[in-house]
Design goal:
Elements lengths: L2 H15 L5 H9 L20 E2 L5 E2 L2 H11 L6 E5 L5 H8 L3 E6 L2 H13 L4 E5 L12 E6 L8 H5 L1 E12 L4 E11 L2 E12 L12
Parallel strand pairs: 3-4, 3-6, 4-5, 6-7
Antiparallel strand pairs: 1-2, 7-8, 8-9
Length: about 220
């Protein structure tokens, strides 16, 4: 077993100790080789439980945050999942390991191109486009799950509209300094569409730039 494999297993143990109890999520984290998704100068720190800088003034999220958001989504094999903020592709790879069909929108074009090549080279089939993630991806809606990996001042209406009945959105909502992790479920009650919310801890994400995010 190589050093990175050992570090991955150690990371999984840490995440389990921090409350990640979905075995499928832990298995997915253990499968994805995070060292491929960080810049060369940070490869030795790939399995630290910390966020790290990547291209385009963006970050690769802390592994706990990735695992926690993924656990909240309750991803099932075959789910269509919309990811807002492709970043390095690490979150998308974890979703793929869970059997999701992943559609991802990235604002920074050079990052989208780089990550698309990386994911393909690793065997992950993710559909990526460059654009305003706050508007979602209407051509492929509805989605069973939506994950937003950037902080937003509100929940974009376009994303709510593109969520399937019974579907879930996880999104950090707040100001540009701290956000509350928020889970929304779209339900139909007596022929009326409703959104049920649960709120969790504070986080700090890069801002969601777009027409329905930060302008």
């Amino acid at each position: 077993m190589d050093l990175n494999s050992i570090k991955r297993k150690e990371l999984v143990k840490i995440l389990a100790g921090q409350g990640i109890n979905d075995k499928k999520v832990l298995f997915a984290i253990n499968k994805v080789k995070r060292e491929f998704f960080v810049n060369d100068e940070f490869k030795s720190r790939a399995y630290d439980n910390n966020a790290l800088p990547i291209a385009g003034n963006q970050t690769i999220s802390q592994p706990f945050t990735v695992a926690f958001m993924t656990q909240l989504l309750e991803v099932k094999p075959g789910d269509k999942v919309l990811e807002i903020g492709t970043g390095s592709g690490y979150q998308a790879a974890v979703l793929c390991e869970l059997g999701a069909k992943v559609f991802s929108v990235e604002r920074v074009s050079e990052l989208a191109v780089k990550t698309d090549k990386l994911l393909k080279s690793l065997g992950y089939n993710v559909k990526i486009k460059t654009g305003d993630g706050s508007k979602g991806w209407i051509e492929y809606a509805p989605f069973e799950k939506i994950i937003v990996t950037a902080g937003s001042p509100q929940i974009p209406k376009s994303l709510l509209d593109q969520l399937a009945i019974g579907g879930l959105i996880v999104i950090p909502v707040g100001d540009q300094f701290t956000q509350i992790m928020t889970l929304i479920k779209k339900v139909s009650e007596n022929d009326e569409i409703k959104f049920k919310q649960k709120k969790f801890d504070e986080y700090k994400f890069v801002p969601l730039i777009g027409a329905e995010g930060w302008t």
